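Q: Could you fold this chain for me?
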Amino acid sequence: MASTSEDNPSPVVANGEEHIDPAVTPEETKEEPMEAAAAEETRPAEVKAEKKWRAKLYQLNSEGGWDDLGTGYSHVDTKNGSIMLISENNAEYALLNSKIVMTTSYHRQRDTIITWLDDETQLDLAISFQDLDGAQETWEIICNIQGKDPDELSPEEASDEEMLPMPKHDNLTEICEEIQNFDQSRRAKIIERMYENEEAYLAKLQEVFTDLEDLECSDGLQKMFMVFKALLNISDIRLLETLLSNKYYLTTFGALEYNNEISTKHQETKHRKFLKETVKFKKFLPLDDPEVIEKIHLNYRLAYLKDTALATGLDENNMSTIVNLMGNNNSEVIQNILLNHESFAKIFERLKTDDIEVRKEAINFLSEIFSISKNLQVQGRLNLLTSFKNIEEFNLSILVRECITFKNDLIALETREKSKLDEADRMINNSLDILMSYLQSFPVTFTDLCNSKGNDESEKLLRVLTEHLLMCQSQGIKLQIHELIRFLLESDTNMTSTFYDVGFKLFAEFFKTDYKEGVAEFNDCLDFSKSLAIDIINKAIADDNYNSKMYIDKYDLIEGVNKMYNFKNKLLNIGIVKFHKALINTGFKPYVTHMIKFDYLEPVVDIFEKNLNKRNMIGSIVLELFHVIDKKAFSELAKHL
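A: Sure. Below is the predicted structure, expressed as C-alpha cells.
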C-alpha cells in the first residue's frame, strides 16, 4: 500500500460504535473519539493500575477508508520500544505490536488520535484513544524514544496549516495545483477547507469569480475554470451537492464556461443562460417538499454536468460517483411520490384526457418513473408495483393500445405535419418502454397485467402490436415491438397460444399480400418488417415446436415465407434459410414430406447457388442447413436436393 500516513482519521460515533470516516476532519467531529466506549464498559481496576489505555485500532484500506481492527488496551513497551494493543476480549491476543522506528513519522491528530506508517508491514495505522491522557502519555513516550519535542509540529503538519490559502486574483494557479495534486492524506483536509467558517472559502471563490468577470480577465477566468474542475473531480458527494446547490451552481457552471479547450470567440459556451432561461421546471404533480424539489434540480444539473458542461473532464471514478448520487436522489423522489397516493392517481386520470399535450406529459412522466425504477432495490420496486395495483385507472395495456391508435388516427386523417407524427411516435416509444420496464422489473406476467381489471385485453393488445410491427414506418418502434414479443414468448407461456392465433394469422396475411412497389424506403421498410416477423416465428418453432407447428400448418406459413424470396434482401434471405433450418431441426417428418412434395427448399438452393463463390453469412447458414439434414438422416430430402 502506498504511504498515506498523513491522513487525518477522525473516529465518529454511529449507532453506539466508533468508526473512522476519512472525509470527516477532526474539527467536524463534535464528540471525543472514545466517548461512546466510555459508556459501554468500565475499565478493569488492574488495567488502570498498569497505566494501560483503552483504544481502538484502525487500518487504511485501498479505497481510502479506515477499517476497524478492534478495541483493546494500549501501552508502550519501553523495554522493546513498541506500541502494544492487547485485545479487550482476549488478554492473550495482541492486536498491535509495532516497533517505534527512528525514521517513522508519527502524527498527533485531534488530540486523541495517533497515525503512522508501520515500518515492518508498510500499512497505514491509527490508534484512537478513549482518554486524552492516554494519547498524551503515548505521544510523549514516542517522542522521547525518537528524541523529539512532543510539542513541535512536524514539517507535514506545519505545511497543512498553509494549505489552500484564501482565493485571490494572483494565487489561483497555486490553489489549482494544490487541489489537482491531492492524495488521500490531503483529500479530507481540502474538503474540510471548503466548509470552514460557514463555507467562507467557497464564498470567497464566488466573490473572486465575479470580480474576474467584471474585469473581463480571461487569464484569471481560465484559471478559475481549472479550480472548479479540480474541485468537481475530488469525487466527494457532499462537495458535489454543495457546488451544484442553488447557492453555488451558477458560479460553478459560470466557471466551466471558460474552458479554453472548447470555448472560442466563435463558439462560446453559455451554461448559465441555458440553465436559467432555456430549461423550464414543470411540476407535473404537486410537490410540496422543498428537499425533493432540490433533489430534482440537483439531478438535472448533475446530468448536465456529466453530459455537457464537463463531459470530457470527468474520470471514470467521478462519473461513477455522479451516477450513484443521481440514482440515490431518484429513489428518494420516487418514494416521496408514492407516499402521496392521490397525486399519483392523477397521472392516470390525465392519460384519459383528449388534450394531447396533457396525455403526452403523463406518458413521458410515467416513462421516466419506470426508467428510474430499474435501479431501485427490490423492496422499492415492490412498493412501486403495489402503488400501481392500488390505482383503479392504471391499465398499461390500454395505454399502449391508445397511443398506437392515436398515431393510426393521424395517418388516417392524412396528417402531413411531421412534428405531430414524430410526437405520436415518441408517445408510442415511451409507452412501450413503460410496458417493457414494468414486465421486467416486477413479478407480473403479460396475461396478469392485461386481465388485471377483469377485462381480457391481451388479444386486443397483441393484435395492435403485431399490426404496428408490420406496418409502422419507424424502424426503432419496430425493433421495440419485436423485442417485446420475443420477451413475452419467453416469459409468459399463458399467452403463447393467443399470440400464435393472432400474430401468426396476421403474419400469414402480410406475407401473402402483394404491395405495390413504391419508393425504395417503403420497400425496405416492408422487407424489414418481414425479416422481424420471420425471426419471431423461428423463435416460436425453436422454443415451442409442438404447439407452434399446428398454427404454422393452419395459416400455411411455409408457403407464405417461401413467397417472400422474390424480394432480393439479404436479411430476409437469411431469415428464410433459418426458417427452414428451424423446421427441419424439429424432426417432424410431415415437414420433410411437404418440403419434397411442394419443393419448398427451392428458394434455399437458389440462394446457395447465387452465393456459391462468396464466403458470406448466407452461404454459411445454407451449409448449416444441409448439415442438419444430414445429421437428422433425412435421406429422402437429401436425395431430393
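A (continued): The beta strands are 11-14, 17-20, 53-60, 66-77, 82-87, 94-99, 107-109, 113-117, 124-129.
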